[in-house]
């Protein structure tokens, strides 16, 4: 983490466009940090740059959603039979599986700090803007930037445990903050967001507003952060900033006043599962999502696509509506078996090669083949066998292909999560909230079961499979709980040959569930950064 390596970013990066429909602006090549930030329009352009920074977090490296599933008991590392073993290193928490992979998250580490730098620059310069009649926008823009910063720090502190905490632009070689310090900042940022974002209901938002941070997103994220922090660290409140009563009140506010609700049919939440009934992005259940488009272009360097989604597709094989991908994150059969036959989430979440009569013939090219792939986030093809995303890009005359033009948004928080978090925190309506989620899943086969901590956790696994939630739900129940749940010895097909796959609890316990800080960053810091145990 040598000076200027991570935190410095040229100003032109601050005003990139293309995050989504509302995030469009032009690059201002003659602008600098010193002569910019004078008008509300310039502040808005810089805010767009903050969103764009979040969109670019996983353009390379290992995405947080993908890593979260590999680390959990939902899936194995997978990938190609002749690929490196980096995903097995993650899956088994064992650096000896791929000793040369010392920097799997390096590009992500850099991208997180670049995006945080953008947010910090904007926050520092807001008082330099001549707001005039737009003075009401100042605190709204601050609230959005602080939410995005909090969201990113929450990713980072869960992955690495101890990270440098920057709340203003800096190029200093800073030591890691304590987790409590980072979580306290996250809590303060989210509190500010709840107090300064408009309480617009979902129905009253224009189509151009959807995709931007809302009061409801901030309140919902507080619930998630509270549950993780108090669980993993055994604390009674969120870093001394937010109590259990307050966290629940935020979630109850979302339920009572946001206008969000459950999409009636679970499969309709996901493009590949819904047929012609897709509820589309920004539906009423989406509380917060990271936006992507199909406008990536090799020639211009425009990079707006969901580049990590291709990792999840079937290995080099397409079968309508599923497009080919790289075979990462093969589904653990015990997840398929965990669903009841009457649970509609089963077929909506998982591609079953056998049950869907898919003539998959790439077993020899697939590592850790199980016969199951993720359906929620997968590339798609049309009836002619063409990549949907690449075809759309081609119609715009773009030099693109399916690897960079995937455009499915990553839904970070759904309303179903709000209901289950409120139930877990002891709402007086807990049974009702719990039942709403399950009634949708089972339809006419719904049977009420009592709420317990275990029944909530079981339901969360089935409801949020492949959404980057399960691993953190396990870890917040305690490292030993996570380790013993994830550990297993089973049989998979490597290159078509049955092979024993082993994940040991001791490795997860040794690392405390944390990931390797990129070795390059440790080296550049000249010892200021300390590596996590077990890595």
TrEMBL record:
Localization recorded for this chain is: Cell outer membrane
Q: Which residues cross the membrane?
A: none
- Report domain RagB/SusD positions: 366-535
Which species does this protein come from?
Answer: Ohtaekwangia kribbensis
What domain of life? Bacteria
Give the record's keywords alphabetically.
Answer: Cell outer membrane, Membrane, Signal
Q: Which CDD domains does this one have?
A: SusD
SusD-like N-terminal domain residues are: 100-227
The reply on keyword Signal is yes
- PROSITE patterns hit by this protein: PROKAR_LIPOPROTEIN
In terms of InterPro entries, this protein maps to: SusD-like_N, SusD_RagB_dom, TPR-like_helical_dom_sf
Q: What Pfam families does UniProt report for this protein, alphabetically?
A: SusD-like_3, SusD_RagB
This protein is called: RagB/SusD family nutrient uptake outer membrane protein
The UniProt family comment states: Belongs to the SusD family.
**Major localization listed first in the record, in broad terms:** membrane
- Keyword Signal in the entry? The reply is yes
